[in-house]
Task: structure prediction
Amino acid sequence: MPSKIFAFLILLAPFSAFAEVTYHKDIAPIVYANCTSCHREGESAPFSLSNYEEVSRKAKTIARVVDDGYMPPWHASPKHLPFQDVRRLSSDEISKFSLWLEAGKPEGDPAAAPQMPDFPKGWQLGEPDLVVSMAKAYEVPADGPDIYRNFVLPLDLPEDKWVKAIELRPSARSVLHHSLFFLDDSGTARSLDGKDGKPGFSGMGFRKSGSLGGFVPGATSKRLPGDLARPLPKGSDIVLSTHFHPSGKVENERTTIGLYFADSPPSRQLQEVQVPPGFGRGVGIDIPAGESNYVIEDSFTLPVDYEAISVGGHAHYICKTMEMTATLPDGERKVLLEITDWDMDWQDTYYFEESVILPAGTIIKSVISYDNSSNNPANPHIPSQRIKWGRESTDEMGSITLIGVPVEADDFTRLSRATKVERAKILTSLGRELINSRVASRLPRIIKSLDKNRDDNLDASELPERMRAALLLKLDADGDKSLNPSELQALKDWLENLKASEGV
Ligand code: HEC
Result:
């Protein structure tokens, strides 16, 4: 126990209110309000904290993890704009756990206990409007590399819907790392499903017609504020694009999702602003072994007035800190998100208490740092190795995403176009990767081998998955999600020019 608290305790010992810190009077109210939402049967935490026995059994660990701030999990610094549903204990609440432990964990009078809150059963947000599950479970092996797999959830909706929230319930939480919710209105994903004898399919061989967000570790589902909602047109299927991380034990994942619909269409369309784009691919993350303070930064200037409703970061193991700031045209600087103790397992989306208005001309800047030394206990490589941008969890990524809407509904197209141009940054690093792997000189042969159906076009499904989105963005001039011979010639010219300009 910190000595200050101890001295304080001795001083106050004669006063009965402080002499007895009991479970029912002091601890239960804190636990029910801050812990039991996750620490109960069927929820994300590995054990339940819902009565005296359960809390008492873990008292020592609890005192430690609340003191060092590990629990309740919340990584956004409290020094800046206030967020909704903050999970942080006051210093007074934190000290109660050690006082209680020191006092021998007295139970106290059950009559003093608060009522256990009425937690919704099964779903954090209550009964969904529509519940869909994978038809069959997918078996994740005990070990081996990470697995990326898509699962189709056919919907057959008779009418357009607007989605306010999605809640995802994995059946094997320990292996499901994240899942993105894409839409497919072409039926292609359905036709690919199960072709290799296992549920789902690998690769992104379908054209995404939309997105409903995603589920990442530690995320909590929330309804979008006001009348905001994401479109779910009739005839669309949901495709769960899931990343598995084997756990050492064979697991069977059969994901269920619950959808919550809005009553009417929203008045404005959501537009994300991700800095840097492409989850950091655009800035070419490449971290030398042993480097303890590798920093990336990038910025984006808003072309229109923007109303930000939430912010969240994405990175992998060795990220240390991230910060997103907004510098307004009048020079005022707002910190939108600061994380000083990044933890890959807790990638929450933080909703601003009040949405933040950022006028046109505001510069949104992200600064993200990494510790690739062996002193970083989260480093997946011992000894440390060079780590580059990539999709495996042992590679790195890094970006911060604002979710919001243009203040004026009509400004959507301008904003959306500006974010697309921004994403073109990804191409410069893609070009460099292609040159370094000496693709340019072998291009005709490579195209021939990729063109599986020999129609002289490279369709989306024939392009290497890692580069597909970037290649189409750069080269697909007619927007048909396929590269025809003249577009492929443009690829050749582009690489030649890039090569000449970089003097490679
Ligand atoms: C948002 C969900 C959530 C909330 C809220 C939450 N926990 Fe946890 N807790 C977890 C999960 C998930 C784990 C297991 C994974 C981990 O250790 O990170 C965990 C692990 C723990 C552990 C084990 C840590 C260890 O080192 O073994 C303790 C103790 C704990 N929580 C106590 C608490 C207490 C006390 C509170 C409230 C003050 C709380 N938790 C609030 C989700 C939560």
Summary: The chain has twelve helices and 22 strands. Residues 34-35, 37-39, 44-46, 58, 61-62, 65-66, 71-73, 87, 89, 345 surround heme C (CB under 6 Å). The longest strand covers residues 306-315.
